[in-house]
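Hello,

Our lab assistant flagged a job as stuck in the queue for most of the afternoon. It eventually completed. Since we weren't sure the result was trustworthy after the delay, we are filing this so someone can double-check. Below is the sequence as submitted and the structure that was eventually returned. Let us know if re-running is recommended.
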Amino acid sequence: MSTDAFATYFILGGAFFANPAMRAEFARFSTVYRTHESMKPVMPLGMLGMLLSMFALAALVAMIHPAGAGVVAGVQFGLLIALYALGSFVLHNHVNLNIGGRLTALQGIAYSVQWVVVGMVISLVYRG
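-- returned structure --
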């Protein structure tokens, strides 16, 4: 279940963050973010971090819904994770990093969609 959520997260992330408009927005802040080339050597560490996160989220769903969860519960769970990510990552980074409001908004949209869909995938795969 965690690997399905992991794959979903990266598929959606690729769709959002490979978008030319999003890439151009990141490029405006080249002193803050790594280039595509310089990110390659550290990408496995980021992937490991997200896989660990998916295991934790799958465990939370199993603890909250020991008999299994339906799609609605998965969407609700994903929305809660999205709100957590917005507060602890997107808005927090807007304050700590020298980035603009447009990039912050684009990240907020992308991560919100990713987490809602990941919550739904976890709920569809986990059956108790």
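-- support follow-up --
The delay was a queue issue, not a problem with the job. The result is valid. The two ends are 11 Å apart (CA to CA). Residues 2-125 form one domain.
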